[in-house]
User: Fold this.
Amino acid sequence: MDEVRVRPLPMHNGDVIEVRYNGLLAKSGADQVYLHTGMAYEYDWTNVENIKMNRAENDWIANVELKEPVKLKFCFKDSADNWDNNNGRNWSYTII
Assistant:
């Protein structure tokens, strides 16, 4: 099973997408997981937010509205401020 799943793909500006997470923080017993997300032009993030994720079976789930036709970037953190940032690369998807 993938640790991070996003749908729908491809992403279009204005879509509401679902992010599912079952990675390191979830497997380490986090009591709460947050989706740290923003839109990106090259390396600068805009519209950054921390979205409280909901637990559903073994996954944590959040929805994100795509507000700009650039890149969606995200990573995850728990309530103890531990991070899963994909080994420093974060996750990134182009919005068309």
Summary: DSSP finds one helix and nine strands in the chain.
